Amino acid sequence: MIAVIVVVTLSIVFKGTAKVDKGFKLNYFKLSYRRKMIRTLTSLPVVILALIVVYFFSDFSILANIIIGLLLFLVFAIQLLYNFKMWRKMER
Fold first, then answer.
1. How far apart are CA 52 and CA 44, in angstroms?
2. Is the C-alpha dihedral spanning 66, 71, 76, 82 positive or negative?
3. Where are the domains of the chain?
């Protein structure tokens, strides 16, 4: 719940600010859509590692592990496609 509040607050605070397209920026909300897409792609190994850890170290059933994996993949894919679409839209 706290994470949702922080994300919503930061997205509102940085909504109208200038976005960074070069160099490293720790704050996700100051990045351009192109940089957000790149950061999403670079987080793919972390997502895969998280899925492996959940699969091997959880006491969930096989079905629960598959559902968790599919949900993580779906969220990752939606975020990647959204950032790509918005990057192309802002590029025009």
1. 12
2. positive
3. 19-91
Q: How far apart are the first and last CA of the chain?
A: 37
Tokens 């996700």 map to which residue? 28
pLDDT tens-digit series, residues 15-32:
888 888 887 777 888 899
How far is C-alpha 25 from the chain's CA centre? 15
The Cα–Cα gap between 14 and 85 comes to: 20
d(CA 1, CA 24): 28
Mean predicted confidence (pLDDT) in 9-17: 87
Closest CA to 42 of 63, 24, 59, 57: 24
Residues 19, 46: Cα–Cα separation, whole Å: 25
